[in-house]
Amino acid sequence: MTIRLRGQSLGKIGESDSGGSMSKLQNGSSKSRQSKARDWFDRAYQAWKQKNLSSALRFFTAAAQAGDKGAQVNVGYFYDKGIGTRRNRS
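Structure (tokenized):
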């Protein structure tokens, strides 16, 4: 599934963008942060394939917070569709 916003493709579920387009962090730890983001993304994707949706959301969120754009798109998709979250009854 490709996510589009105003004609721009934002990415597909299951794709990560931590490879090279992340901006450099000022403290120089860009590589280790990218590595962690990639690791979390891979773990999230495995959880997604195994239908462990709450774990997938947790790992995608961790990768998204580390700057992975693909994970950011996936977290938005999960919340938009209510995947891996509890229903808010209020």
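The longest helix spans residues 30-49. The longest strand covers residues 8-12.
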